[in-house]
# Entry
Amino acid sequence: MAKTILVTGANGYIGQKVVKQLLDLGLNVFAADLVVDGIDPRADCLQANLFENSEEIIKRVDQIDTCLHLAWRNGFNHFALSHIDDLPGHFRFISSLLEAGLKHIAVQGTMHEVGYWEGKIDENTPTNPISYYGIAKNTLRQLTSLMAKKNEATFQWLRAYYILGDDKRNHSIFTKILEAEERGDTTFPVTSGKNAFDFIEVDELASQIALSISQSDVTGIINTCTGKATTLREKVEEFIATRHLNITPQFGVFPDRPYDSPIVYGDNTKIQKVITTSR
# Structure
């Protein structure tokens, strides 16, 4: 019998794509979000506020094999107060599931949990987050790990890096470039572009997440990433060229963010093991 995966935040930027990937793998999906109109119709959808009325989900926990918790507000605004305000709600929801008998919890993480770091990030890299977003995610990671251990549940923390693709929805620099092009701007101001990051297309990220939670041999912190770093300058120039845009980037106009390292990328050893064994 196919597993049933509960996906929270299923209508989000990443969620919609993960739901489709899971369904294409032949899994059953129970998709929950505040709004459900963009979710693959093959999923069993529930419109709900997880912090206020999660009872409908909790009472079905015996039908759920795995929960993938993607729900999160303002992920692209690293200093939004909602990250701290919502943290108790995330904790209560996850702990309620685990205490009700859930045996596999997976949560979307972020490399911003680590804070300033130069080079490769692996599962043992120390964390010292320097944004509200990173602090909240890192705290939830620690809490979820403890709760999973207490309830003898499988724990996976899917640490994402710099996400590209579906560019009108991701609120990144690439979204802003498209908006500037549509306004008719001829130039676009950028930082130095020298920083190198682990860029991953959202469809590839969704595939890595779906494969990771479909198995339980590879657990703990899993870097969902490419395992290599590319400079922002290269990615911006590639983005403009492949989309045949007319806008010209102006590098060095803005200062680099103080919490961005010169080079950072994920150790992809564990995710490659997941991908290889899934074939």
